[in-house]
Amino acid sequence: MLNADERLRTDLFEATEQKPTRDGFGAGLIEAADTDPRVVALCADLSESTRTLEFKKKYPERFIEVGVAEQNLAALAAGFALYGKVPFITSYATFSPGRNNEQIRTTISINNVPVKICGMHAGISVGPDGATHQALEDIALMRVQPNMTVISPCDAEEARKATIAAAKTDGPVYLRFGREKTPVMTTPETPFAIGKAEVFWRPPDLPRAGLGNYQGRPLVECSIFATGPLVHYALLAAKQLEAEGVQVTVVNVHTIKPLDKDTVVREAKHAGAAVTVEEHQIAGGLGGAIAELLAAESPMPIEFIGMHDMFGQSGEPKELIAHYGMDVPHIVAAVKKAVERKAH
Amino acid sequence: MPLTDQEAKELSDKANAVRQTIIEMLVAAGSGHTAGPLGMADIFTALYFRVLRHDPKNPEWPERDRLVLSNGHIVPVRYATMAHTGYFSIEECLTLRKFGSRLQGHPERTKLPGLETTSGPLGSGLSQAAGMAYASRMNAEKNRIYCAMSDGEHDCGNTWEAAMFAGANKLSNLTAIIDRNNIQIDGYTEFVMPLEPLRDKYEAFGWHVLEIDGHNIPQFINACEESKAIYEKPTVIIAHTIPGRGIREIERDYRWHGKPPNKEESERFLSELRTMQGKISSEHQ
């Protein structure tokens, strides 16, 4: 059942409110700027689709148009940050941090300055634009850079909170946002802190701490670690599994780096099996991060939902998510497989 | 205020001392770049001893002018000049490129105060300087932002993205200085990837362009003064320099771009510098 401590929306499964996570970014950026005059926004000819347009209207003197020049976007922002500003740089994730990876590495990460890299249109759900515009490597690119924090919000409300929180941190941050409208699951009361994973779903009578047991087997059979809007699919899968008598936990891992080791290891150990869910390549993404951690701390069967070393193609978002094995039936099957592997 | 002849001579002597430090630190390091640092010794001496508003004892002084070194591989000239202006001891220069040193092979801001940024990978310094200039103007500050660049890094698209941005935004508090020494790793710039007409390119991008002899310190200082009086555009000073300047046997030889002198060569080079290319006798001889 939904974890009451998380104050999630009660109509979550009906998905009555749908919004792109980039909308939450746009709102959060203005809120951050309202309280911090150091906040500036840099745009690479995409003010409407990166949702910096409203910021531009409210703070025209703090909005910098860079044109289609993502390398300049990153290095300019480093200059602003070295001068005491808190720059948010915005483009599609395939271009930033895609095209400008070296500039980010040298001028932002090694310099260790508070530039906030905001990658829009991330994931396969960009849909009809096709493989060139579907960023499926961005988490991996950013996760391997020392000093970088990596955040992938699950919905628009969490995106708003993540943006505000990113503005308050001293170092570089990568924020990942999607294009499509996706269900809003969280509320303003849902806890959010960078580096703190949240348990969104757990069996009704799971003790708050320690291992629960039911007729000799763990009460929780599998832990699902999900990031981004696919957290909604993970919750739908959990609900279906519960109806089938399989109890799982669903952990919203919005911060992929630094990974919340305590929560991930604790939840994984309860279950003894794990499934990771992301709209990203398995290599280097959330799946890679969880596998690295659990291999060291608590080896167990893990199944990976995500892109398996291939590029996407044009199509409708839902159709692509299903085709590449990231929808609810695939998550359900992955959980059963992980549980099955545990028995051997 | 124009330099007196005496001041010009003093700066020239300081540049010579900076060159000697460069040779000494490269020999001690056993790797690094020789031609570029020697070629820019006059300009860095003029910057640190005359042009920049800065405080060696307070490198983070907020009102200071900023100097971004875009082509980080010539950083020995910056380290040597900083040492000679009192940021740290000249002895520390001998730790260049060594384990645990603040003087990294390519400059790292977080290791040594006063470097302003981290550089080495070419083509992104002008962007950072433009970001600083824009931010300084937002704050209505009166300082200037300088960016030292190589000619070779004008092969990089990022350089031109930055040039376009600075011109479009009329960043008149920005002065770029191009070390026009005509060499890069694979040979002469006009063979590797022709840059000419470089002046016309910058003018087309909305810059005020000055061309000077990069070894004529009064000329360079005058150009910096002129750039302060230009209120509509950023200024670029194309400084024609001789790579390896001061050591006759390596001047203009692109093969000295990326290697240090060995012990024997360094003794010869230092002797040449100490005797001002044979014009005076050295106290070391």
**In percent, how helical is the residue content of chain A?**
25-40%
Count of spatially separate domains of chain A: 2
| Overall number of strands of chain B | 7
Structural domains of chain B: how many: 1
The total of beta strands of chain A comes to 16
Description:
The complex is a heterodimer of chains A (344) and B (285). With 344 residues, chain A is of the alpha/beta class. Chain A has two domains: 4-12 and 188-343, Rossmann fold (3-Layer(aba) Sandwich), CATH 3.40.50; 18-183, Rossmann fold (3-Layer(aba) Sandwich), CATH 3.40.50.970. Helix content of chain A is 35%, strand content 19%. Chain A is built from eleven helices and 16 strands. Chain A has helices at residues 21-35, 53-58, 70-82, 101-110, 138-143, 156-168, 231-243, 261-271, 286-297, 317-323, 328-343; strands at 18-19, 39-43, 63-65, 86-92, 116-120, 149-151, 173-176, 182-183, 198-201, 213-214, 217-218, 222-226, 248-252, 255-257, 274-281, 302-307. Chain A has a seven-stranded mixed beta sheet, with helices on both faces. In chain A, α1 packs parallel to α6 (156-168). Chain A is globular. Chain B is 40% helix and 12% strand. In chain B, strands 1-2-3-7-6 form a five-stranded parallel beta sheet, sandwiched between helices. In chain B, strands 4-5 form a two-stranded antiparallel ribbon. Chain B has one domain: 3-Layer(aba) Sandwich (Rossmann fold). Chain B is of the alpha/beta class and 285 residues long.
